Amino acid sequence: MVDTVLSLLIGLGLAAACGFRVFVPLLIMSLASRAEVGHLVLGDNFAWIGSTPALIAFAAATLLEIAGYYIPWVDNLLDTVATPTAIVAGILVTASSMTMDVSPFLKWTLAVVAGGGTTAAFQGITAFARHVSSFTTGGLGNPVLATAEAGGSALLSVLAITLPVLAFVLVVGLLYIGLKKLLFRRPAARTA
């Protein structure tokens, strides 16, 4: 039972990280699964994530994704592509982290609902923040936001694999703060 909960927490932490950057969590998963210490055991049929071709592909995709987010207005266009891609990646990382013996139906239901939902929430919050930054700073604030998102994705990915309970607490806290700011924004004061 404990293994089931921990593997789900790992998956949710990685799924949240996919909401910040799609390929950073996949790259970190690939590296962690290749570590001699065995930091991450991948679920059945997901060993390909740790393969050399996958590692190279994830590294290249990560570099391209991070570079693209440093170009104002291109970053907003990337969100259009990244949103569905991030949700698929969130489902994938959640399913691949679930190594326990559960029915495929339960595994994929949790991956789609919990993993995909977590990723969608984080991707939505970051996309909204980027749009606000683009319109309020003319895109000049976006590189700062891009750096925070890339760093947050890397940190959350490493925490999810090494300290899944702490990562889960961080995910819940970030979701609370993000949704609170998004849903309970005060309207701008009108000047007469």
Largest sheet: none
Give the DSSP E fraction (strand runs of 2 or more residues): under 5%
| Contiguous helical run count | 7
Category from helices, strands and their pairing: mainly alpha
Number of strands: 0
Explain this structure.
The protein is mainly alpha-helical and 192 residues long. The chain has one domain. The protein is 77% helix and 0% strand. The chain is built from seven helices and no strands. It has helices at residues 2-20, 23-34, 52-68, 74-97, 104-137, 142-162, 164-183. Helix 1 packs across helix 7 (164-183), helix 2 packs antiparallel against helix 3 and helix 2 packs parallel to helix 6 (142-162). It is globular, with a radius of gyration of 17 Å.
Name a few traits of the molecule.
mainly alpha; 192 residues; 7 helices
List the helices and strands and how they pair.
Blueprint: H1 2-20, H2 23-34, H3 52-68, H4 74-97, H5 104-137, H6 142-162, H7 164-183
What is the structure about, briefly put?
The chain is mainly α. Helices cover 77% and strands 0% of the residues. It has one domain (2-180).
